[in-house]
Design a protein that fits this description.
It comes from Flavobacterium cellulosilyticum. The protein is of the alpha+beta class. The protein is 34% helix and 30% strand. The protein folds into four domains: 199 residues; 91 residues, Immunoglobulin-like, CATH 2.60.40.10; 81 residues, Immunoglobulins (Immunoglobulin-like, Sandwich); 102 residues, no CATH class. The chain has ten helices and 27 strands. It has a five-stranded mixed β-sheet, with no helix packed on it. Helix 2 runs parallel beside helix 8 and helix 3 runs antiparallel to helix 5.
Length: 516
């Protein structure tokens, strides 16, 4: 319809045809509209159930805060604040729903007439001004962005990072690539522009469900263990905590027995370990006895308390192992039995039966990395590296060992288009916007690769040399003369290992794009 010179009459016919197609696209069936309405009611019902559950959990927390303010008082204050901003956010969304449905009729039961809610002009006028969000639309986006930020600020370290990440993901507003539109749309455009009114109402109700789910997740995460009240001393479980799990022959077996729910005011009437009385302390009892012969040995006994005029005995049952003094070290590469040049190789180095802080390892390129026993190896020149290990026994005597590891280089990466290797197929438009990359296939380490340049060759045309990882104007000009079935070869890919300084990677293999 767009080719050649058209008469005014033909232009009018074409315009009417486009309008007709648009009307067909917007004419959503009554069944679909009703389905949205039923889904909206289900979500509202679920939100009501979640409200009841959240209110019950908060009631338990409030009671605990009153009984034990030192342990639960601060947490109740945090939850109070989160509940306040959650209610304000939910009320705001309910206000938006009221505005966009003010002209919508309801039946005798007070439900919307879903089949009449096929237009979205009220939402479009509220949220958009031309191609950009209106003042109200921007306020809507700001509130979504502020909510997880406010929770993170209020909860601080009381809320685990994994929960913060889950909440941020739940309210994320990243742009979305629309196949229908053939472009990447903003989050609000993709989700709210041009939709039937009932669809938008349902989405807003779901957003309220997300808020209530967030409240529930916060309380469950922060208080799932604290809110379990111990009704009786029988709920306490003695736990044997040894200084170490394995002891040398001739050593004293040392450790302590603690209760699963530690209470500094709780003092046992008596504690018996392996037939001997042990002095009871606040919530625990320390013990020490001879290790015995090599092999496995039991630890038995009981924690004894007075409760309601009766003696409650909580059984102690555990075991320990006695082994001979070590003669060799345990050295293992966390990834494989070789170390690679150009990357950081994590390693765990230990001596069986010796505390990690009493073990020292040395080799060219070897360094400690945080936790005791963890090392990082960055191999130097050569094809092998020897790791020497020295352990200090409890009597201050020394034991030593060593092990040799092979040094290998990083394998050559493979070129990629859209993250795909080998022969990639698709229309020219896909290649024009694609990123040329590289990746290490079947390589156990996470490494960063950056493409700094490449050559593009279309059969029958001159090679184009490109700086960077995307096609330039010259490449697109060459592509414009290529046809379906032609192959475009991306070769001489210059790949750099991120953060590896002057380390040179092997040649990057080419990737081919077949035009369809």
């Amino acid at each position: 319809m767009a080719g050649g010179k058209l008469s005014p009459r033909q232009k009018m016919i074409n315009l009417m045809y486009l309008v007709f197609i648009a009307m067909l696209a917007l004419n959503m069936s009554k069944e679909v509209l009703s389905a949205f309405g039923i889904l909206n009611l289900k979500i509202i019902e679920s939100n009501s159930i979640t409200d009841e559950r959240n209110e019950n959990s908060f009631g338990q927390l409030a009671q605990k805060a009153q009984e034990q303010p030192g342990q639960y008082g601060e947490k109740k204050i945090i939850v109070d604040k989160i509940r306040k901003i959650s209610k304000e956010y939910c009320d705001y969304i309910e206000g938006v729903k009221t505005i966009i449905t003010r002209k919508t009729e309801k039946d005798a039961q007070g439900n919307f007439l879903y089949e009449q809610m096929d237009k979205g002009d009220l939402v479009d006028r509220l949220f958009f001004k031309g191609e950009k969000p209106s003042k109200e639309g921007q306020d809507f986006l700001n509130r979504i962005a502020q909510y997880p930020s406010q929770i993170k600020e209020i909860a601080g370290s009381k809320l685990p990072e994994v929960e913060i990440n889950k909440i941020e993901k739940r309210f994320a507003m990243a742009p979305i690539k629309s196949k229908t539109a053939g472009a990447t749309l903003s989050w609000i455009d993709y989700n709210y522009k041009g939709f039937p009114l009932i669809a938008t109402v349902t989405k807003l109700t779901q957003m309220q469900a997300d808020i209530k789910a967030t409240e529930s997740d916060v309380m469950a995460s922060m208080f799932q263990s604290d809110l379990i009240a111990a009704a009786s001393l029988t709920a306490y479980q003695p736990i044997v905590v040894l200084e170490k799990s394995v002891f040398f022959q001739g050593e004293a077996v040392k450790g302590k027995i603690i209760l699963g729910k530690f209470d500094p005011k709780l003092l046992a009437k008596s504690v018996i370990v392996n037939g001997a009385n042990v002095p009871a302390q606040a919530g625990q009892a320390n013990f020490s006895f001879g290790s015995g012969n090599i092999g496995e040995h039991p630890i038995t006994g009981s924690f004894n308390f007075d409760e309601n005029g009766k003696v409650i005995s909580l059984p102690i049952l555990d075991k320990y192992v006695v082994v001979a003094r070590p003669k060799s070290a345990t050295i293992s590469a966390d990834k494989m039995n070789v170390v690679y040049r150009g990357v950081v190789n994590p390693m765990t180095i230990s001596f069986a039966g010796i505390s990690p802080d009493k073990v020292n390892a040395s080799a060219p390129g070897l360094s400690r990395s945080g936790s005791t026993g963890s090392y990082s190896m960055q191999p130097k020149s050569g094809t092998e590296v020897v790791i020497n290990v020295v352990g200090t026994l409890p009597d201050n005597s020394k034991v030593s060992d060593k092990k040799t590891f092979r040094i290998k280089g990083i394998p050559g990466p493979a070129g990629t288009i859209r993250g795909e290797t080998g022969v990639v197929k698709g229309p020219k438009s896909n290649l024009e916007i694609a990123t040329i990359g590289a990746k290490l296939e079947d390589f156990d380490f996470e490494v960063g690769l950056h493409v700094e340049g490449f050559n593009l060759k279309v059969t029958g045309q001159a090679t184009v040399v490109v700086q960077g990882d995307r096609l330039n104007a010259q490449c697109k000009s060459v592509l414009s003369r290529a046809g379906r079935g032609d192959q475009v070869t991306i070769s001489e890919i210059k790949t750099k290992l991120v953060g590896a300084g002057s380390y040179l990677l092997p040649r990057t293999s080419p990737v081919i794009f077949e035009i369809q």
